[in-house]
Amino acid sequence: MLVYDVQRIREILEDFYLLSGIHIVFFDTHSTELASYPKGQSKFCTMIRSSPTGYSLCKQCDLKAFDSAVKDQPPHVYRCHTGLLESVAPVYDGDTLIGFVMAGQGREVTRESGQWEEIQANCHDLPVDFSELYPHFKKLPGVSEKSLGAAVRMVGLCIAHSYKNHLLSRGRGDFCAALQQYIENHYDTPEKMRLSSMAQTFGVSNSTICHLCKRELGVTVAQLIRRCRVNAAKNLLMNTGIPISEIASMVGIPDFNYFTKVFKAESGFTPSRFRALA
User: Fold this and answer.
1) What is the per-residue pLDDT across 209-233, written as a single tens digit (0 to 9) for each?
2) Consecutive H or E run containing 23
3) How far is 83 from 139, CA to CA, in rounded Å?
4) Which residues on neighbouring strands pair with residue 23, listed in sequence order?
5) CA distances from residue 203 to 95, 184, 217, 222, 259 in whole angstroms, order as listed
6) Of 9, 180, 206, 226, which is the most buried if we count CB atoms within 10 A?
């Protein structure tokens, strides 16, 4: 349930491009492009991708880069299948992956010669007119491994900050409502009440959930879960004759003694006393 402020991400990418002249893209966790600046591909890459084979090679190269970026120490700097220099870095909110930043499609400034010949060799099986491709190659920005690594790292941090701020700004509304609904739907399943499971479901970090819950609802996540379980237990105690020990398990607290302690802390009564008074 990742929620992006795409307009803000576009603004970050545009600001970066205006400073650097380097094409930059943000992808979601499914490798789908969400924003880029400038929009679309360079003329060089458009020509390479114009054939099904070229397009497939570019997509395979991107997917391999995303995989390497997660496995390796970011940023991951590499040469694409044509020989251009590119870099990609995963973007995290805490320990939760929220997307990828990719920058490049550039000529390597530290190599004075040989790049064009390498590109011709790498692309010799593609239906490309090299006489038409060459001027577009020369227009590509000059980049270095260090500059591209710094680029994706810096932009990734800006997007992560923007993502968290956007999430916090909308937390008073649908996020906390969704969190409460999730707890009401799954309070009887202890595995789903783990903070890590909630974070994975909502696509945020553990700390973000805790911060939002405390800030917007005034309680901790654990308190919210206990309150929901006790309310469910109250309903069962008032409207059914189910044994209290079974009710404890039904609401996700199979330890009867602990259930009694939690119930009394929340309601002021033991479960048996509450049923007698109901």
Assistant:
1) 888 888 888 899 999 999 999 999 9
2) strand 23-27
3) 15
4) 104
5) 10, 19, 20, 19, 31
6) 9
